[in-house]
Specification:
With about 525 residues, the protein is of the alpha/beta class. It is built from 13 helices and 14 strands. The structure holds beta-D-fructofuranose (FRU).
């Protein structure tokens, strides 16, 4: 397999005085837009402070949990500390295919953006990984492989080469007299197959005898069990080649218990178990099986960000750890741990500063929102106050104008009253002036009308003149009564009248005039 740059990733009414109306003066629309404006500021404040977009979630599915994977998980988390836009969740299948399939389904169902998986057993995990890969969800396979290229990227070490190196070391340790019992990793997991294949082919070339092998399932207990059987089966064996350190330690312990002089070679060299076992002279040597946690995260980010990445990355051929360098490697690991803890301390302070900064930014934006809201509210209230004041002023001006008009009307009314009174006084005075001579005329006319020495015609004419003089006197009295009426001094006086007599008198009054005009017409 060669590492080529082949893929780019999948990378979302009118009364006299006008009343002042206030109910519709406050317009609600500016308030609503103000509210919308402040709401958008709030959203911007909450989403914009100290966030890093886009944000990716990466699911790491380990096939098991052990010292080597702990080291790798540490590397993954350490690398993730340098990338604020990723969130990592690591799950372990605990050497159980069904559990690991469930973990992978979980990452898919939870909408993770990328999956990194070390398949427990190739045959069991290939269908699930193939389905995920074909669905377009990026998946990086590492350490152990699947049956086919069903991955966005693969990263792992050359396990055939590790087997080969182990054989070379065995030969170097024991020369021509190298008789090996092999404790294998889980059958069906690709590193076990490759480590066996690499060792076998080199053993043949180097004249190493592989007496027998057994499945240690990558763990201490099974390693012990299979070691016991192989050690008793092959008393001539002088070297245990185990596919990992836990099984190597198990083999070495069983050999000691059986008082057997055997050399032990393991693989992994995770500091807490493998290197320590070499430093403690429990096993003789181990191979640094590269973890590549940092590289995995970088590849994942490149895929997610659509940047170029290697489809297949083979990690460098491992170095041997033996009594000569184990102590130094432990010290280096210790130093690395201290640096890592310092970095993680710094990261925590940075995160807490960022959190404080976010809080302060949110507080600042909240204060700004409150100020904008208060200013807006003040503006709306002032606007309503000004509108009300203006309305008041207008109404007052209208009231002053109406009062002026009312005063003018009052003046006109008084002038009219004065003119009417003057006219009445004039008529009263004229009537008084008319009544005196009329009274003087009335008496002689009455005497003539009642005289007995007149002809019938003269008597009739004089009686007519007498009636009309009286009538004139009545009319003048009525005019004078009008003045009393105006001064409210006139009372109502009712009397009985002989209507036929009255009609006769009224018609007789016109008789002479009628006769005179009839004579004119006949002439
Ligand atoms: C850890 C482990 C290692 C071994 C690797 C091979 O789960 O068993 O000890 O080197 O897996 O995949």
């Amino acid at each position: 397999m060669s590492g080529e740059i082949t893929n780019f990733a999948v990378s979302k009414n009118q009364p006299f005085f006008i009343p002042i109306q206030t109910h519709d003066m406050i317009n609600v629309y500016p308030l609503r837009s103000l509210l919308l404006f402040t709401l958008s500021i709030a959203i911007a404040a909450l989403t914009g402070s100290c966030t890093h977009e886009p944000h990716y979630r990466i699911g790491v599915s380990q096939c098991s949990a052990d010292d080597w994977r702990d080291k790798m998980n540490e590397e993954i988390r350490r690398e993730a500390m340098f990338h604020d836009n990723i969130e990592i969740e690591i799950r372990s299948g605990d050497d159980d295919n069904a559990k690991q399939i469930a973990d992978l389904e979980y990452f898919v169902n939870e909408g993770f953006d990328l999956i990194i998986a070390a398949p427990n057993e190739a045959d069991a995990l290939t269908p699930t990984i193939k389905r995920i890969y074909e669905s377009g969800l990026p998946i990086i396979v590492f350490d152990r492989n699947v049956n086919g290229e069903y991955y966005t990227a693969y990263q792992g070490a050359d396990n055939v080469e590790i087997g080969h190196q182990a054989a070379l070391l065995a030969r170097a340790m024991l020369g021509d007299e190298c008789r090996v019992i092999e404790i294998c990793g889980l059958e069906g997991s690709s590193p076990a197959t490759d480590r066996q294949r690499g060792f076998d082919s080199a053993a043949e070339e180097l004249g190493i005898k592989v007496l027998g092998r057994g499945n240690g399932y990558w763990n201490y207990e099974e390693g012990s069990r299979v070691s016991d059987s192989l050690l008793s089966l092959y008393p001539e064996a002088n070297l245990i080649y185990a596919h990992n350190d836990r099984m190597a330690i198990a083999g070495a312990m069983r050999a000691r218990a059986a008082h057997r002089q055997v050399k032990t070679i393991g693989i992994d060299a995770a500091p807490t178990i493998g290197i320590q076992a070499v430093a403690d002279s429990i096993i003789d040597a181990t191979f640094l099986y590269p973890t590549g946690g940092h590289e995995l995260v970088r590849t994942a980010i490149a895929i997610l960000e659509g940047k170029p990445y290697k489809k297949v990355s083979i990690l460098p051929t491992p170095a041997t750890v033996d009594a000569t360098n184990a102590e130094m490697l432990l010290l280096q690991d210790q130093a690395l741990r201290e640096e890592t803890s310092k970095i993680s301390g710094l990261k925590q302070s940075l995160d807490s500063y960022c959190e404080k900064h976010s809080l302060q930014t949110a507080f600042l934006y909240s204060a700004l929102i409150i100020i904008v809201l208060c200013a807006g509210l003040l503006f709306v209230v002032l606007r309503a106050y000004w509108a009300r004041k203006r309305h008041h002023q207008e109404v007052e001006a209208q009231n002053i104008e109406l009062a002026k008009q009312r005063d003018q009307l009052d003046t006109l009314y008084k002038q009219l009253q004065d003119a009417t009174r003057s006219k009445l006084t004039f008529f009263t005075n004229v009537s008084h002036d008319l009544r005196t001579p009329l009274t003087l005329v009335a008496e002689p006319v009455h005497q003539l009308a009642t005289a007995t020495n007149l002809t019938e015609q003269q008597s009739t004419l004089m009686q007519l003149a007498d009636k009309n003089v009286k009538r004139l006197q009545r009319l003048i009295n009525q005019i004078l009564d009008l003045r009393k009426y105006e001064d409210s001094k006139l009372g109502l006086s009712l009397k009985n009248v002989d209507l036929s007599e009255a009609l006769r008198e009224w018609s007789a009054a016109f008789e002479a005039a009628a006769r005179a005009s009839a004579t004119c017409i006949s002439l």
